[in-house]
Amino acid sequence: MIKPHCVTCTIVNKCWFKDEKDKKPDEFDYSKYPEIPLEKRGLYHPNCHDLKIPISVPMSNKIEIFDLERRMDYLFLDKKVWLNSMGYKEEDKKEVLELLEKLSKVAYCQGNYKNNPPVEEKKKYGFRIRLNLHFPGKREKLGRIYEITSSYIVYPNGKLKNNTPIGGWKK
Fold it and tell me: Please, what's the largest Cα pairwise distance for the chain?
């Protein structure tokens, strides 16, 4: 608890989410608790004072991504076979970084993501999303598009923290 606010309320404050199911935090389900009076029913929990306030769709050039660059060495170690199969080599690290950053910003602003629910103990770190990226091939794979995912935590004011640069194929 971040007095007087709970963790859920704190982590979504000033964050932009597309107003669709599986793209924003779940609201509290009062159908299971009909005994809670209407005046006590808040957005995320009883007595919650948060409100849904529309925020303009962010512009991709205003989004700040962090922790992506620091994960590039691991990406080329852990997903080297994937990257090679898409036509990328070790010397393309900077290009892959720039592509992931650009494509992630665009996908987020377009709402091309789904919730990526964490295990219970990790909820306190933020609202997690899995972006769907259309990643272009290179060299002999030029002209092909690979549908991959990249995982982030949404932070206030247009900030995204990268957790996994390439997490898998789009589902």
Answer: 63
Dist CA 72 CA 116 (whole Å): 21
Q: Which of 100, 118, 111, 107 is closest to 162 using CA atoms? A: 100
Within 10 A of 57 (CB to CB), how many other CB atoms are there? 12
Residue whose entry in the numeric block shows the structure tokens 């709402």: 111
Q: How many C-beta atoms lie closer than 10 Å to residue 85's C-beta?
A: 12
pTM for this one? Answer: 0.86
Question: What string of DSSP letters covers the chain?
Answer: -BTTB-HHHHHHTT----SSTTSSPPPP-GGG-TTS-GGG--SSSTT--------PPPPGGG-EEESSGGGHHHHHHHSHHHHHHTT--GGGHHHHHHHHHHHHHHHHHHT-EEE-PPPGGGGGG-EEEEEEEEEEP-GGGTT-EEEEEEEEEEETTTEEEEEEEEEEE--
Q: What is the pLDDT of residues 24-36, one digit of tens each?
A: 888 888 999 999 9
Q: How many residues does the chain have?
A: 171
- Whether residue 1 is predicted with pLDDT greater than 50 in this model: the reply is no
